[in-house]
Amino acid sequence: MAEVKVFGAWGSPFSKRVEMGLKLKGVEYEYIEEDLKNKSTLLLKYNPVHKKIPVLVHNGKPISESLVILEYIDEAWEGPNILPKDPYERAKARFWAKFIDEKCVPPMWKACWSIGEEREKAKEEASEALKFLENEINGQKFFGGDTIGLVDIAANFIGYWFPITEEIVGLELMTQDKYPNLSKWAYEYCNCSFVKENLPPNDKLVEIFKGIIQAQPASN
Ligand SMILES: N[C@@H](CCC(=O)N[C@@H](CS)C(=O)NCC(=O)O)C(=O)O
């Protein structure tokens, strides 16, 4: 039987992308929790370039970078498609997944954890980027249409982690008023059974985020 291992961190949306891909395909795997403050020799061996989780190891062969791993999973195993079959739709899915990583997640995260002018700039950038995603859903249940695909899994931070963080830090960015499609999508995605079962517990994330706030200087 194929040996499938995931080196991850329980609270990481990138790590969860890989687990969601494997769950979607029905692939069994061994999960290895990494301590990111004290990375294992194996993680450093498997991902010497970025030294980050997640890493998927399939029969001893390591693959890094969550979006690359998702494409690998799609090609290596039968089961529901992660990427569409049509070449144009595939290209579009890759475009939006890259857009999420480059244009959405960084300013959204920064908007939560920065202050003053930096925060305002990040909020503006994040709002602009989210508008594109809001339009892209365009009445569909998921970015992939009726079923969950690459863009939905790539957007997991937007659907689950961000609303929790927003509430903790008192930010109102992805509101239902401004982003009704995205808000509906987030609900549908997080309540899809295989997703719901694999999301990190809300209270554990809240604890982590509250810890970050407490560790910040008093002026924040
Ligand atoms: N682009 C990477 C991002 C992965 C990433 O940022 N992983 C973080 C945890 S959420 C990590 O391993 N950080 C450890 C470090 O930077 O030293 C991917 O998509 O896999």
UniProtKB/TrEMBL annotation:
Q: Which domain of life is it from?
A: Eukaryota
Concerning InterPro entries, the annotation shows:
Glutathione-S-Trfase_C-like, Glutathione-S-Trfase_C_sf, Glutathione_S-Trfase, Glutathione_S-Trfase_N, GST_C, GST_C_Tau, Omega/Tau-like, Thioredoxin-like_sf
Q: Which Pfam families match?
A: GST_C, GST_N
* Residue ranges crossing the lipid bilayer per the database entry: none
Question: What EC number(s) does the entry state?
Answer: 2.5.1.18
Where in the numbering of this chain does the GST N-terminal domain appear? 2-81
Keywords, in A-Z order: Transferase
| Domain GST C-terminal, chain residue ranges per copy | 86-212
* Keyword Transferase annotated: yes
Chemical reaction(s) catalysed: RX + glutathione = an S-substituted glutathione + a halide anion + H(+)
Sequence similarity: Belongs to the GST superfamily.
Q: Under which name does UniProt file this protein?
A: glutathione transferase
Origin species:
Rehmannia glutinosa
